Amino acid sequence: MDATRIHLLITHLPVFGIFLGTLVLVFGLIRKDSQVKIVSYAIIVISIVGGIIAFQTGEGAEHAVEKIAGLSDDAIEEHEESAELAVWFIYSLGLLSLLALYFEVKGKALAKLFSYVVLAISVITFYFVANTASLGGKIRHSEIGKEQPVQNDERDE
Fold first, then answer.
1. Residue 61 pLDDT more than 90?
2. Given 29, 43, 93, 143, which residue has the most CB atoms within 10 angstroms?
3. Number of domains comprising the chain
């Protein structure tokens, strides 16, 4: 399987995984349930791995789509720049989630603090990852971000 296919298959994992992991973490914090928080960290870490794979395969995907006539070089460049920023949040969230997971499993006093830090960073990371995904979608889907004209149906008149 080439980089383009892997990139397209995996790019949804960090978007939906970080979102889901964040929701599960909120639930765990509300319930004060250590096991739920552990599951949330695992979901986030798996999502982070997907984000790293998406970033690593992005260059290969870029080379493949640059050959396709009619695609915007500006859209590709904007997506790439957004990914370069998002990956720093991805790495940070991954490291913080692993630390939080360790502290939670070991019952350390820092577990509670790290759960809130992970929550805050996961919300921020989700924003950057979702923005990057949206920009990536615009490369092949020119209808994204443009207002669609309202079509009048003569039968309704």
1. no
2. 93
3. 1
